[in-house]
Design brief:
The protein has 17 helices and seven strands. It has 398 residues and is α+β, with helices and mostly antiparallel strands. It is elongated and about 105 Å long. The termini are far apart. About 2% of the residues have low confidence.
């Protein structure tokens, strides 16, 4: 006889498990401790004629009507040659791995493998993840990789292109193309949409950052001197001119890296593109700017803390926007300052290897393999940078 609610409610436990049948495989089990649970027994549809059992939950959490509905669905699956227990297990695994094919998950898998290949002293692991976090994950990180179209990627890359972040665009293209290769090999996508996107993007020749020529330096220096915006921005633009470091190296600089007595800034290897510590001589004018800056941000770790979070550096667009407001839009960007300095120092007659070392560039050819001189003798790079500082900021006060 089919079960009734009254029969279920009045069923009393005994010292042995009691089985109450509702028919067609659906049963209610009454345990000695009084707990009641639904069971469904069926013959596997694989031809083995083996019996199997699956649980539908406990009563009264699962009502009689709900248990019958579950049993009906299980019978339907059996009639179609599908094992209902295996079907449920597959569904549960799919739910548990719902984000397994999301781009962020694949990126993490790719990054973990690459991090083991890259040298321990390399900054590539940290750099690559930072690029993905800043420029990719906000747009497609939580989307299944199959749903991301070539136009989505084109939008991400063109956004960086329009912002003048050509190096970041190159890195995004390179890293994400590599992630897709992993996805193709592991069968999660059929093709790599980033492989052919280059034809729709602007070609950018390395080294062509917008920059003024040495003859325009007085205009730039005067514009910085007259800047009436955030004084931290003013100090930052001055220090870029006085040190020739990359904007990112200065933005992320910490006070502990500076030795005022030795007039020396040691940039740690993990922040350097070449993966080794870089020594930057500090001319008098740079020390003056740093002392003024220290009175403002010296109680922070960073020289240039962010406006909303002092543990993070200021935005990488801050100096770029300031130069645009000064009238240098399309003419000069922060990174271009290094090109301007290099050109001017060559015209002043300084040795190329001193200039390349100041810029933290690897020397070309055989020189780059066997030459490790830092040219930090007082009459070498320190004297060169002091002469440069005195040329652009003649007064000792930077």
């Amino acid at each position: 006889m089919p079960l009734t609610i009254k029969k279920i409610q009045t069923a009393k436990p005994s010292d042995k498990t009691i089985t109450l049948s509702d028919g067609d495989g659906l049963q209610l089990i009454v345990a000695p401790n009084g707990r009641k649970g639904w069971r469904f027994r069926y013959t596997r549809p694989d031809g083995s004629k083996k019996r199997n059992m699956m649980s539908f939950g406990s009563y009264p959490t699962v009502t009689l009507a709900e248990a019958r509905e579950k049993a009906s669905e299980a019978r339907r699956l059996v009639s179609q040659g599908i094992d209902p227990a295996e079907h449920r297990r597959t569904e549960q695994e799919a739910l548990e791995n719902l984000d397994a094919d999301h781009f962020r998950t694949l990126a993490n898998e790719w990054h973990s493998g690459k991090a083991q290949q890259w040298k321990a002293t390399s900054n590539r692991a940290k750099l690559s993840w930072s690029v993905l976090e800043n420029h990719v994950f906000p747009y497609v990180g939580d989307r299944p990789i199959q749903s991301i179209t070539p136009m989505d990627w084109l939008g991400i890359l063109r956004r960086l292109e329009q912002q003048g972040k050509h190096e970041q665009k190159r890195r995004v293209h390179f890293f994400c193309r590599d992630i897709y290769r992993l996805a193709v090999v592991t069968g999660r996508v059929d093709s790599n949409p980033l492989a052919d996107l280059g034809v729709a993007l602007q070609r950018f020749k390395k080294g062509s950052m917008s920059h003024i020529g040495p003859e325009e330096l007085p205009e730039l220096v005067q514009a910085i001197e007259n800047y009436r915006g955030n004084v931290l921005v003013k100090y930052g633009l001055k220090l870029l001119l006085l040190t020739a470091v990359r904007p990112g190296e200065l933005r992320k600089a910490e006070w502990k890296e500076f030795d005022f007595d030795k007039a020396l800034w040691r940039i740690p290897a993990e922040r350097m593109k070449m993966g080794k510590e870089h020594k930057v001589p500090l001319p008098t004018q740079a020390l003056d700017v740093l002392r003024d800056l220290h009175r403002i941000t010296g109680h922070y770790n960073l020289l240039f803390p962010g406006r909303n979070d002092s543990t993070r550096p200021m935005s990488d667009m801050t100096w770029s926007m300031a130069l645009k407001r000064m009238g240098f839009d399309g003419r000069h960007v922060p990174h271009g300052t290094r090109h301007t300095i290099a050109t001017a120092l060559k015209e002043m007659g300084y040795p190329g290897e001193w200039i390349e070392m100041q810029l933290s560039h690897k020397l070309p050819g055989i020189q780059g393999i066997y030459t490790h001189a830092e040219h930090m003798a007082p009459e070498q790079r320190p004297a060169m940078m002091q002469a440069w500082a005195s040329y652009i900021f003649p007064s000792a006060k930077g």
